[in-house]
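Researcher: Sequence recovery benchmark, item below. Answer with residues only.
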């Protein structure tokens, strides 16, 4: 029984202690006066009566009531019910004023004061019970008695209240006698009655309707947030303007936390004076009136819940861990079903009639039911993780957190981890852990309903039913007798509340009377018999154990039976000594051990091989077992949640091997290097579980002794399962009170000594695992750090626990010196801490504890001594056999710089080699790394024995190394962490190597240094291409006397003269340092004009070439002439080097020798093509306007339109404006700038006038004159092509709209109106002057970078007229400029376009070199990732996209295609971007490749690269960072980008290229490899200076060392067809127009592929050698039985082209080997191939019907197939073959036909096979002569020649026969005859009658037959 109220007090406003407006309360009276012994009077009650402060108010307030909660020092809660009303009193301020006592503070109160103010008075009940309603009624009654002046004496009422006693909790079943116990009717003697119901079970919280109220105020998500925050110990603050609501909210939050109890600060109503409590560092739940909201704003880590506004504010720095999914989702669903049942049926067509939520009280219980269900799921099976370590005298219980989390596989879950570590859960364990106690609803739920919960969890409605059952129980608990609830309490009458009568102050009570009441009641209680409520204790059921849940990642497959079988077999083999079998299985076992089931299986299997705690193995067995243990432990986390380490612990002390001389090595000395052994929590959990087992055994023995007699009955009864420790403990606890004292003490002692013996055992075990084998090394301690006891988190202290926790701080620093004593000390300390902790918790006596502390150092010392002996012996063991190092094969001239160092090649992010994509795991592999003068080579064998005989090779040229970084690597099988290197190469290779422990670390350092030296030689002469074959010495200068003297002198002369001309700017031959590019350009512009003209006294054009040169120079010039460029210029007809007299005057261009000494432009070639009319002096002046002096020169001419392609650098910033200045601006005198810009214009004009189209149009004034004769062929096509250019132009210039991939055709309306924007005056002139005609086209829309109208003429848009110029029809012209200048947007700002010029600038944005560099880095990381990752952001395609490499390709290709279109439309184009050597080179080369089929052959491509890339000075050395000087600039693959573009074009036009894709890869590899000199140095000038330009012709001393990549390719091409493209079948004059959209571009497989069997395949000498070796080994192996023809081909290992060659290569190889067998001299493959082609052509002609199969073989005969079956195989439209023919006749450009994708997608336009006019053509079947079959033929109806010809096929040039139309008599429908084609309708046949014979024809259907007949008929009638 308990008192209803402990204290009753009256608190009033204290008038004496007023401080400036802040009042205070004081206790007026309090009963009883002396404290009760069991509950002292709480201090500070007066603060809580008025939490917002005591204040006087001018008007009376209504009475208020709320309950505050105070917590005392013993953490007991006192409920203070405060009833406050207001009493009037005279204003103290006015009184003061009359008495003249106004203090300073009140001085300012000039406000009119009311005469009467009201002061609060509070009636307070303090109780330990929480009966809010009863308190409200009682205090209300006292107030009513006072107000209404009832006749009852107040003392009686208060006396009755204080003496009222009620039961604490009812019985479990409300029977009749319990009814009296749980129901209590009380009366205070004022005619009132109240029934108090006490809850049946006191353990369950009483919530009324507070929980439901809380959810209504805040909503589901917010309350769940608060719930999780409270459980994970965050600070929570409630705000509301109502005090009672604050109390209710806090109570509700606590109620849903059941069965956990909140144990931190809990203040539902916090007075304003105590607000500083909110900055406490501990968690809390506090309520504060919203009045103080502003004070709560600066709290940074408090979650604020505003009950009135319904919001929860979580600060940024607070992270709330939410419930794990799917629990969170399910809980939310259930809550919404309770709170808002209509939600579910809101969408139903026929919603049920009533879906009202339950009444608030019931709803409240339903919500609590949901949370009970939630906790039952969270904590199910928790009793199986309890360790009972003492039973007597008090049970001591520990919770095994790791196992609990492991079973749920929620170790990663933040929420559960925090809850289990929290105080609330610790309380839960200590309260609910004991196995013998009273049970409640939760115990029942967690024990007996687990199955039900598990089955129903996915079905919300079933769960809901369960929740409702729980709610019913909860409701019943709170309201055992809902019917009886009645309150009869008088309320104060309405008028009395407001009447003046209530002015009488609340009376003081007579203390004596009240005290008498209390004493009387106390005496009565003493005499009464004590009420004993029988507490029903029972054994707490444990419920079913939690089955192993599937790993969260769904690793079901990891536990597949097959894997467990493998583990078992392997162990069996090991113990049966079948080592070979075991070795084969080992890799599979190590992989299987990643799964948890396999690890458990391993421990079980090993256990079976242990006899009497010992298992002696031989060396190899021991080695295997240790490896398996290490692998098992490697994946264990430090808390060992699956108990794997725990299961291995007894085993590591059991398995051992004899090492001679009585020394035994146990397995533990080899498995120490794992986190788990250094984790205190692990050892504690292990210790407790062992103690529990021993204590269980202890009591099982005693029981067996006692129960021998009734043993038989037990068996019959029990279900044969073992009794768990908790069940035993429960039984013992029940018996405990019945035992005698002696028995009790005996049991306590037995338990204590059990614990003590275990502690000794564990001290030994820990020393085994913590002391390293080599105690001098201190290895374990340093790498893992023994963890602090307190540290529960995963962040470990990295240095060992030198002094951080131990009693003695014996070292100055935190780190230790590596002495053995030191290791011993830290281990001793670690064990001491462990022993202290567990012994204190499990109640070991102090004597025993001291004994332990003295024993531990001795145990450790003894163990160290045994270890020393073992360590000595283990050093004598023969080392494990390592695979022998394989030597790599070297190229001729390549030498080893460092011999092989043993390393492991570790897998990177590429999955093929690791076997993840199928196939064997080739990596990791063990072998050696070799550093040669040319390459870095790894050669070794895979660690996986299944592929152990394969050889793995990975190598790359040292010159291609782009990044080297140190890494540390732990290999799966060793325990050691090794240092390693990660080397990345721009040949898309990555090597991650870990040095073997036998490699000394300084050796690794030497290796790095050598690598750096080789990668960045001080000068280009140090690269492999120069040093090749110069033995031994690393980098040597040429000192030998040169045979080819003349060439050397030439180049010297050349350089000398260049130096002389330029001035002594950079001399010293000894050490060449190329000048920086900045200098080169700047000093040239400083030179004075005359200085140049001095050296050029004679006018060169008038002299012969030879007369102007000295003899030595002449020799050089002849070499220059032989250079590729000149051959090409002559091929293009751009000028010859013959004598000027014989040179025809009308040739527009000439070859200028102005740069022969490289004085005009250092980075240009010696001979340049310039317009005929421009003298060299002009050139010298013009060049200064351009960056690096790279002025415009011609590099290609369109043979058809005679438009030329020019290249130059961008203009200097100052040159731009001058260039666009209008020439007719009046100037005071011709300034130099003006004259230069005039000369520039002259230069451009000269180029324009060289074009035939220009010279003719200027002659005629009519529009028609514009299209010159040269262009008449393409006239019609031009009309059609114009819009395409416009669209291209828009894209390139970055207009907003994207052009579609194909363009609509149609000749009408495509000449867009272009209206002149020039001023009227100009247009007037324009009518007379022919030049003006073109001028008028130039709008005055100024060409600046921001002008949207740029290129509008091309884009075909109308421009508005800003100045209202006349828009006469005259100004509608052909929209085309003669010369387009492709310039950089950024440079062209501010330039004015003159209206007379005939060129147009197309501003584009070019990609910066930096962009290319960064993009390439990202591309490498995408294609060759350094580690595998599962992040979606790091997937290949995402990384590829982020690299933007494809976007850059797209941009370059797009510009190139635009230029091609412009050139093809008859204009000239000048590409003038950046410095003229990166993007310019790319664009110019691509344009030539697309426009001129010659460049798509071997010779042409070589010529293109030599001309545009090498001669025109692309800076290969600088961009490739080939020397020390350019190291900082980094690797920028501009040339690789170009090759990638070529590869893209090759993919789209496979028949247009003579070379294969492999050729491009070969160049891509060797342009960075530095094996050849071709791609070294930055310009011809530098090559001449070093004497490498012309040596290729001279020295042929060592044929095996090729200096030029071209020679090498030629040589190789003679031997093997690897570079040749069998599909090569070019069309004449074909211009390619590839698609450039990103979707059309493919990733080049060069970036992705690798061949681990032989390394990169680009050094063919190595390849041949390897093939020979392979053949020899095959021959040896042949001797055995029959050999299978099948071979396994592995991705990333085998070279596919070699293993699975294409058919033609294979046939050629077979042919060669057959010839060799027959002893014939085999002819070259090319000759064979050419013969084949020729033979096949003639065969096709001779054969009577075209065999499709034979023609398919040879691409040369495939021109009809190249149409991608567009015409022949897709004939869906009626007569479409004929239509197509007509269309292609109409437009030379390919155009889409009626919805079918245009055939031009594959190849551009048809070229008609004969020049004659074809009126109609198509396929017809023709019946042969007598007895001959029907055959399909290509018929052409020619009106002009008046004949019908037929050909074998569409492409055939030679006509098979002719029918003269003159002889035709009639065309009539025919009938099918014998042998006619099947499945063709009758009407498709028709006959043609001539004078000689009748021809029978058959078309493909009746429609086309009709068309043919009509066409022939019309021809006849025309004739």
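Model:
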């Amino acid at each position: 029984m308990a008192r209803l109220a402990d204290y009753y007090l009256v608190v009033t406003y204290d008038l004496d202690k007023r401080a400036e407006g802040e009042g205070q309360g004081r206790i007026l009276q309090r009963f009883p006066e002396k404290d009760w012994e069991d509950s002292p009077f709480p201090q500070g009650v007066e603060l809580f009566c008025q939490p917002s402060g005591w204040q006087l108010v001018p008007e009376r307030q209504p009475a208020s009531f709320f309950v505050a909660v105070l917590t005392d020092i013993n953490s007991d809660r006192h409920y203070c019910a405060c009833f406050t009303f207001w009493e009037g009193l005279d204003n103290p301020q006015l009184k003061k004023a009359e008495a003249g006592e106004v203090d300073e503070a009140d001085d300012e109160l000039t406000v009119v004061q009311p005469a009467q103010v009201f002061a609060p008075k509070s009636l307070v009940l303090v109780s330990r019970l929480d009966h809010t309603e009863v308190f409200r009624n009682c205090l209300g009654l006292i107030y009513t008695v006072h107000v209404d002046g009832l006749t009852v004496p107040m003392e009686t009422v208060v006396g009755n209240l204080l003496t009222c006693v009620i039961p604490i909790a009812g019985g479990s079943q409300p029977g009749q006698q319990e009814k009296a116990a749980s129901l209590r009717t009380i009366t205070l003697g004022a005619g009132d009655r109240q029934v108090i119901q006490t809850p049946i079970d006191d353990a369950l919280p009483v919530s009324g309707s507070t929980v439901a109220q809380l959810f209504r105020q805040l909503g589901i998500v917010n309350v769940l947030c608060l719930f999780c925050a409270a459980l994970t110990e965050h600070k929570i603050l409630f705000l509301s303007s109502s005090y009672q609501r604050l109390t209710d909210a806090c109570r509700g939050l606590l109620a849903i936390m059941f069965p956990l109890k909140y144990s931190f600060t809990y203040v539902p109503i916090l007075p304003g004076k105590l607000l500083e409590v909110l900055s406490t560092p501990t968690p809390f739940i506090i309520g504060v009136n919203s009045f103080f909201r502003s004070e709560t704003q600066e709290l940074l880590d408090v979650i604020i819940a505003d009950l009135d506004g319904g919001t929860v504010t979580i600060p940024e720095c607070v992270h709330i861990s939410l419930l794990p999914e799917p629990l969170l989702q399910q809980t939310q669903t259930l809550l919404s079903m309770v709170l808002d049942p209509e939600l579910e049926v809101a969408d139903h067509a026929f919603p049920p009639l009533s879906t009202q939520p339950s009444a608030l009280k019931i709803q409240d219980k339903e919500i609590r039911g949901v949370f009970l269900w939630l906790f039952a799921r969270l904590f199910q099976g928790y009793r199986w993780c309890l360790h009972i370590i003492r039973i007597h005298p008090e049970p001591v219980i520990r919770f095994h957190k790791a196992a609990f989390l492991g079973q749920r596989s929620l170790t990663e879950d933040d929420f559960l981890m925090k809850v289990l570590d929290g105080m609330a859960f610790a309380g839960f364990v200590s309260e609910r852990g004991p196995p013998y106690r009273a049970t409640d609803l939760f115990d029942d739920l967690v024990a007996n309903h687990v199955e039900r919960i598990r089955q129903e969890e996915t079905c919300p409605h079933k769960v809901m039913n369960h929740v409702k059952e729980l709610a019913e129980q909860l409701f019943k608990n709170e309201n055992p007798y809902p019917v009886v609830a009645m309150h009869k309490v008088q309320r104060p009458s309405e008028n009395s509340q407001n009447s003046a009568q209530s002015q009488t102050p609340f009376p003081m009570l007579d203390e004596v009377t009240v005290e008498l009441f209390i004493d009387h009641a106390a005496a009565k209680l003493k005499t009464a018999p004590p009420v004993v409520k029988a507490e029903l204790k029972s054994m707490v059921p444990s419920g079913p154990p939690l089955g192993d849940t599937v790993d969260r990642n769904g690793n079901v497959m990891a536990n597949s039976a097959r894997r467990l079988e493998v583990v078992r077999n392997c162990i069996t083999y090991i113990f049966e000594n079948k080592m070979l079998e075991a070795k084969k299985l080992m890799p599979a076992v190590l992989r299987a051990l990643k799964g948890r089931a396999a690890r458990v299986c391993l421990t079980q299997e090993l256990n079976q091989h242990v006899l009497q705690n010992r298992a002696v193995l031989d060396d190899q067995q021991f080695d295997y077992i240790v490896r398996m243990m290490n692998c098992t432990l490697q994946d264990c986390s430090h808390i060992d949640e699956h108990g794997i380490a725990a299961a291995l612990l007894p085993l590591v002390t059991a398995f051992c091997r004899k090492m001679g001389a009585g020394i035994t090595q146990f397995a533990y000395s080899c498995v120490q290097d794992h986190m788990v052994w250094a984790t205190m929590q692990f050892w504690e959990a292990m210790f407790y579980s062992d103690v529990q087992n021993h204590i269980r055994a202890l009591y099982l023995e005693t029981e067996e002794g006692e129960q021998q007699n009734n043993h038989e009955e037990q068996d019959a009864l029990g279900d044969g399962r073992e009794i768990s420790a908790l069940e035993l403990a429960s039984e013992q606890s029940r018996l405990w009170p019945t035992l005698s004292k002696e028995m009790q003490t005996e049991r306590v002692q037995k338990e204590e000594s059990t614990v003590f013996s275990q502690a000794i055992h564990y001290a030994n075990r820990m020393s085994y695992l913590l002391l390293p084998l080599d105690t001098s090394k201190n290895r374990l301690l340093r790498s893992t750090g023994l963890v602090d006891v307190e540290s529960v988190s995963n962040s470990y202290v990295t240095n060992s626990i030198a002094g951080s926790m131990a009693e003695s701080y014996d070292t100055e620093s935190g780190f230790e010196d590596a002495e053995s004593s030191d290791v011993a000390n830290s281990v001793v300390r670690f064990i001491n801490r462990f022993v202290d902790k567990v012994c204190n918790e499990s109640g070991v006596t102090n004597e025993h504890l001291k004994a332990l502390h003295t024993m531990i150092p001795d145990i450790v010392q003894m163990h160290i001594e045994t270890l020393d002996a073992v360590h000595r012996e283990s050093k004598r063991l023969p080392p494990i056999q390592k695979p022998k190092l394989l030597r790599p094969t070297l190229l001729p001239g390549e030498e080893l710089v460092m011999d092989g160092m043993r390393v492991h090649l570790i897998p990177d992010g590429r999955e093929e080699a690791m076997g993840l994509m199928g196939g064997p795991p080739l990596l990791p592999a063990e072998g050696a790394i070799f550093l040669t003068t040319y390459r870095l080579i790894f050669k070794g064998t895979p660690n996986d024995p299944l592929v152990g005989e394969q050889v793995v090779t990975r190598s790359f040229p040292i010159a291609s190394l782009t990044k080297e970084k140190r890494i540390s690597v732990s290999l799966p099988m060793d325990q050691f962490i090794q240092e390693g290197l990660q080397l990345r190469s721009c040949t898309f290779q990555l090597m991650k190597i870990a040095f073997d422990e036998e490699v000394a670390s300084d050796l690794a350092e030497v290796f790095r240094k050598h690598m750096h030296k080789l990668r960045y030689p001080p000068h280009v002469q140090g690269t492999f291409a120069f040093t090749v074959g110069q033995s031994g010495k690393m980098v040597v200068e040429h000192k030998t006397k040169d045979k080819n003297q003349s060439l050397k002198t030439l180049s010297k002369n050349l350089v000398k003269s260049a130096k002389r001309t330029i001035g002594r700017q950079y001399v010293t031959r000894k050490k060449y340092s190329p000048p920086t590019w900045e200098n080169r350009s700047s000093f040239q512009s400083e030179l004075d004009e005359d200085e140049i003209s001095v050296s050029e006294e004679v006018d060169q054009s008038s002299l012969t070439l030879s007369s102007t040169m000295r003899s030595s120079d002449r020799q050089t010039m002849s070499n220059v002439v032989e250079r590729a460029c000149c051959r090409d210029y002559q091929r293009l007809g751009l000028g010859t080097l013959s004598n000027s007299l014989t040179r025809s005057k009308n040739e527009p261009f000439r070859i200028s020798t102005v740069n022969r000494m490289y004085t005009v432009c250092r980075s240009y070639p010696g001979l340049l093509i310039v317009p005929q009319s421009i003298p060299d002096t002009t050139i010298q002046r013009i060049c200064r306007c351009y960056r690096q002096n790279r002025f415009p020169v011609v590099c290609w001419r369109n043979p058809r339109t005679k438009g030329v392609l020019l290249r130059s650098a961008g203009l200097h910033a100052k040159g731009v404006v001058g260039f666009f200045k209008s020439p007719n601006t009046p100037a005071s005198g011709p300034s130099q700038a003006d004259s230069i810009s005039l000369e520039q214009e002259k230069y451009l004009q000269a180029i324009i006038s060289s074009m035939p189209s220009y010279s003719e149009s200027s002659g005629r004034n009519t529009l028609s004159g514009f299209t010159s004769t040269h262009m008449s062929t393409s006239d019609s096509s031009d009309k059609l092509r114009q819009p395409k250019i416009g669209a291209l132009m828009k894209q390139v210039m970055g207009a907003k709209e994207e052009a579609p991939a194909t363009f609509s055709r149609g000749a009408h309306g495509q000449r867009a109106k272009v209206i002149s924007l020039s001023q009227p005056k100009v247009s007037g002139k324009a009518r007379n002057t022919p030049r003006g005609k073109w001028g008028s086209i130039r709008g005055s829309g100024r060409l600046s970078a921001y002008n949207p109208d740029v290129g509008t003429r091309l884009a075909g848009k109308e421009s508005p007229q800003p100045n209202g110029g006349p828009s006469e029809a005259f100004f509608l012209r052909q929209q085309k400029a003669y010369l387009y200048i492709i310039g950089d947007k950024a440079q062209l700002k501010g330039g004015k376009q003159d209206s007379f010029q005939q060129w147009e600038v197309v501003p584009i944005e070019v990609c910066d070199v930096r962009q290319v560099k960064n993009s390439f880095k990202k591309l490498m990381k995408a294609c060759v990732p350094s580690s595998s990752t599962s992040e979606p952001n790091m997937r290949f395609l995402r990384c590829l996209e982020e690299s933007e490499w494809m976007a850059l390709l797209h941009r370059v290709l797009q510009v190139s295609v635009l230029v091609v279109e412009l050139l093809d439309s008859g204009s000239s184009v000048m590409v003038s971007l950046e410095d003229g050597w990166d993007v310019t080179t790319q664009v110019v080369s691509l344009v030539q490749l697309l426009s001129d089929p010659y460049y798509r052959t071997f010779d042409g491509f070589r010529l293109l690269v030599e001309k545009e890339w090498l001669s025109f000075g692309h800076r290969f050395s600088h961009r490739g960072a080939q020397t020390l000087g350019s190291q900082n600039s980094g690797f920028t693959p501009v040339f690789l980008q170009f090759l990638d573009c070529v590869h893209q074009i090759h993919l789209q036009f496979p028949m247009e290229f003579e070379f294969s894709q492999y050729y491009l890869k070969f160049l891509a590899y060797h342009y960075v490899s530095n094996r050849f000199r071709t791609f070294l140095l930055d310009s011809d000038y530098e090559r001449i200076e070093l004497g490498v330009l012309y040596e290729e012709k001279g020295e042929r001393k060592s044929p095996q060392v090729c200096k030029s990549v071209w020679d090498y390719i030629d040589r190789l091409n003679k031997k093997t067809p690897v570079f040749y493209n069998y599909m090569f079948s070019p069309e004449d004059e074909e211009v390619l127009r590839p698609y450039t959209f990103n979707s059309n571009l493919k990733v080049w497989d060069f970036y992705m592929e690798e061949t681990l069997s032989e390394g990169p395949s680009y050094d063919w000498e190595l390849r041949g050698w390897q093939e020979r070796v392979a053949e020899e080994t095959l021959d040896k192996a042949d001797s055995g039985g029959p050999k299978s023809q099948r071979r396994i081909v592995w991705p990333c290992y085998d070279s596919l082209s070699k293993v699975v060659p294409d058919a033609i290569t294979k046939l050629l190889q077979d042919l060669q080997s057959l010839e060799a067998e027959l002893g014939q001299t085999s002819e070259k493959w090319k000759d064979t191939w050419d013969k084949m082609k020729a033979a096949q052509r003639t065969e096709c002609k001779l054969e009577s019907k075209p065999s499709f199969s034979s023609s398919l073989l040879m691409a040369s005969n495939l021109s009809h197939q190249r149409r991608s079956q567009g015409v022949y195989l897709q004939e869906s439209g009626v007569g479409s073959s004929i239509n197509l023919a007509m269309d292609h006749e109409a437009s030379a450009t390919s155009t889409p036909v009626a919805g079918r994708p245009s055939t031009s997608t594959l190849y551009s336009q048809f070229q008609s096979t004969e020049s004659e006019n074809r009126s109609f053509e198509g396929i017809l079947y023709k019946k042969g002569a007598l007895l001959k079959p029907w055959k399909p033929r290509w018929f052409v109806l020619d009106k002009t020649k008046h004949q019908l010809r037929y050909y074998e096929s569409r492409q055939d040039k030679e006509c098979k026969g002719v029918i003269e139309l003159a002889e035709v008599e009639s065309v009539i429908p025919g009938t099918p005859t014998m042998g006619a084609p099947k499945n063709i309708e009758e009407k498709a046949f028709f006959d043609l009658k001539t004078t000689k014979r009748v021809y029978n024809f058959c078309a493909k259907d009746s429609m086309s037959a009709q068309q043919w007949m009509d066409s022939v008929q019309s021809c006849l009638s025309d004739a």
